[in-house]
Amino acid sequence: MKLTPISTLLTSLLLTITAQADFVDNMTSTEPSSALWSTSDGWSNGWPFDTCWESSQFARNNGIGTLNLVSSTLCSETTIGPEYRTNGYYSYGTYTFSIKAPTENSGVVMGAFTYRGPYDNNNGNPIHNEIDLEFLKGGVQFNYFHKGIGKHEYFLTAAQLGFNPSENFHTYSFSWQAGIIKFSVDGIVKLTSRKDIPTVKEGGMKIMINLWQCLASSWCGTTPGNTNTTAYVDWVKYTIK
Fold first, then answer.
1. Are the C-beta atoms of 90 and 81 separated by less than 8 Å?
2. Is 2 inside a domain boundary?
3. Among 54, 83, 104, 130, which one carries the catalytic annotation?
4. Domain ranges, residue 66
5. For 89-147, how does the pLDDT look when each residue is reduced to its tens digit (9 = 90+)?
6. For this structure, is 134 an active site residue?
7. Which of 31, 104, 134, 153 is the catalytic position?
8. I need a surface site. Which of 77, 91, 168, 209 has the fewest CB within 10 A?
């Protein structure tokens, strides 16, 4: 009888767990959102997140995902906000979001990203990998982490984008493939990265969307005195290609 090495079995199992089918979620109430997504509820990340995740702060209204961040004394942080995450892990492919960014752009971050980490039901795998679209200071930042190491930031101001991200919906995407990540805005590639790229052999990542108050002022701007801001997601799309 031929024996298969344990490492091969584990790799095969991991890829089976993380491989997911294409989908488009138009944020309508009739779609099977509970099968695809979950809302974080009743906890916080700690610094620099000055926000407790509360499921009440995300809603699907008339085909739009609405994210609300508000000041609150009901948790250990000074605001409550939303975090929406897929139940499954996704691998190489293109991740696209139609987003209208929050109007408050100082001390507030909206993220649309993929993530896996040691505290994220990670199938025993402690590796922290992440690919980010981050809306802050009136623009958008592209970033990624591989094995917990970041420092791959690339920021575009509203002037460089040619529009204010909080005024209308625009599409933002990244294509993650072996050895390369391409970040695009409205279908135009803005950044191509080939250095230290996460690999699918290290596991797939969950798709996540959140809105939070930020305490790292050198990065995200000065925290507002009284936060009350909203961001919107029209649709989310994942394709394996």
1. no
2. no
3. 130
4. 21-239
5. 999 999 999 999 999 889 999 999 999 987 765 566 678 999 999 999 999 999 999 99
6. yes
7. 134
8. 168
